[in-house]
Write the structure tokens for this entry.
Amino acid sequence: MARVMAGLTTSHVPAIGAAWDQGLHETPYWAPVFRGYQWTKDWIGEENPDVVILVYNDHASAFSLEMIPTFAIGCADDFAIADEGWGPRPVPTVVGAPRLACHLAQSLILDEFDMTIINQMDVDHGLTVPLSLVFGSPERWPARVIPLAVNVVQYPPPTGERCFKLGRAIRRAVESFDEDLNVQVWGTGGMSHQLQGTRAGLINQEYDRMILDKMTADVAALRAIPHLEYLRETGSEGIEMVMWLIMRGALGDDVEELHRHYHVPASNTAVGHLVLRARD
């Protein structure tokens, strides 16, 4: 059967993608950001996941304020790279895993999660920056990808508890699939940052580090964090971290932390990154 073997979290700051594409990753400003992912690049080469379920939020590329699904799963054969205003990133087309994605959609909907099924969409930096950070610049991505888009843009976003339970349901769905696959779940976004208003540029390192610690030590506390606390402590965009809880739920009760990276700042954002392995 298929198994969720490991997962990771990472910020998906668009400026990181631009820095990589422009060859700035060894400059003094950007080198500390990218250096923290070298361990993961070495590790992923040994793990060789067949499929990555990549949890991210769309940034008005596939969806607009006219239609924003709470949870949407990409079931297409492939996904083009979105033009976010300055041309598509020069990265490979994302190849999907439609058979597993359709199985996930069926299982999750019958498990009482209202998933929106997406058969065609372009994917933006929320999805492609994590792929670049982990896989570098291959001619084609070495794993198939199932995009799972979460609304953290238009109020109300889903709660951390709901996201964690969705992760649990994803684990059940993957384990009921009839093909032997090594599956990873990636939760992206965050960490603390605010892009507008009087608190623009807010970064809360103490709170960010608490989140990193409790992803393994006390995930129950993270599941209970309300929206207003994320807003107050981590800025208006810090709510993206609820997507990490989908990954965490998918790994089961017993996990071990393999790698951690935290850096401030990348553009105007705190970058956080964890690699976790499921033990049960």
